[in-house]
Amino acid sequence: MLKNKNIVLGVTGGIAAYRAAQIARDMSKKGAHVYCILTKNALNFITQQTMETLTGNPAVVDMFARPDKWEVEHISLAKRADVFLVAPASANFLGKMAAGVADDMLTTTVMATKAPVVIAPAMNVNMYENPVTQRNMRTLRELLGVTFVEPSVGLLACNDVGKGHIAADADIIAAVERALGKKDFAGKRVLVTAGPTREALDPVRYLTNKSSGKMGYAIAAAAARRGAAVTLISGPVALEKPDGVHRVFIESTQELYREMEARCEEQDVIIQAAAPADYRPAQVAEQKIKKTGDEPFDIHLVQNPDVAAMVGQHKRPGQILVGFAAETQNLSTNAGKKLLKKNLDFIVGNDVTRPGAGFDVDTNIVTFYDARGETSLPQLLKSEVADRILDRVLELM
Ligand code: CTP
User: Which of 20, 31, 273, 390 is an S-S bond match for 3, by CB 3.0 to 4.6 Å?
Assistant: First the structure.
């Protein structure tokens, strides 16, 4: 993946700067051309010469020094980057980038790049958890689609214990490879369901729910980007069809059931992010229902089939089945029950009452539940959650 790719590696001033040396070396060994940009403060922890020796390329600090020798003025580096990695990124760097401050080589270059940006923050836990830092990271995600490689929890250099320790080298390099467009789903058939259903009451009325389809569409887009042959079975939503995806529209849960019955066995992976209605009106009036005086109006509902349970019954060996559980209470217990009942490999649970999670927003806060237990992810863009779900699917395969 990294062979002959140009990676610009920004290094900021923090004790984790020494780790940039190993990351640069590992990427170079995998065949990447690594170009380092250090901030002035980074020089307190690591030298230009270290990075130049390890990468075989110039490492720059000053915008105006040595341009003839190395031909590395910031625009040319910004253009050359296939991926722009900043590791470690300090709170100061995140603040400057989020505010659009471009006052040194690193910030001017990162602002000028069109390449995907991957950032591995590392700092004191209180600085990391400071709402200003968190807001800056949110801004960078939302405005620029920056990918963050979350720091881990551990004993920090300042002797505090908490989140702020730079992520593992392998995780940082994996994020760079993903940003380069790793085709790790090549040859796999992936079916994704998305959006709500509509259960007709009469020719003009229906029952539905708040599902926006965004999570399922993000999964379909990510799987296609990663090389899968993707079928997206979508309820009625107004989202653009992701590139390279075959889309089939359905309206009701019964229609979804029929589509899934016909298609489920040939798939390698099935991810059911749709929110099929559990009930439908027992009768669909042929004509528009009219008001009759002041009488209350009762709708009699009958149960729809459980699509995921049917898919679970048809599961073939090696196939991976993923379900969702959108809950407003008792997430963990409910997700555990659904895992068993629907014969799923794992459930992506979200508490839709939390801000930043659930319907119609671009972020989600999810927990994976499987036979081994639970793994909680932080608030991420739905596109990032999609990649994490696919990473987990690959692990299970
Ligand atoms: N699901 C399904 N068919 C249904 C209802 C849900 O296939 N009739 C799927 C959803 O796509 C999701 C999972 O089952 O992947 C869980 O959906 P959810 O609505 O959270 O659960 P239900 O099974 O409907 O359970 P409950 O109504 O008790 O919450």
Answer: 31
36 an active-site residue?
no
Nearest-atom number in ligand 1 for the CA of 274 is: 11
DSSP code of 247?
E
Ligand 1 in contact with 253 (CB < 6 A)?
A: yes
Ligand 1 probe mutation, 191, 307, 339, most atoms within 8 A of CB? 307
- Given a contact cutoff of 8 angstroms between Cβ atoms, the answer to whether 12 and 80 are in contact is no
Give per-residue pLDDT as tens, 235-294: 999 998 887 899 999 999 999 999 999 999 999 999 999 999 999 999 999 999 998 888
The class (CATH top level) of 189-282+298-396 is alpha beta
Which CATH code of 3.40.50.1950, 1.10.340.30, 3.30.479.30, 3.40.50.970 fits the domain covering 6-179? 3.40.50.1950
pTM for the structure as a whole: 0.69
First to last CA, the chain: 21
- CB 197 near ligand 1, within 6 Å: no
Mean pLDDT for the stretch of residues 20-46: 97
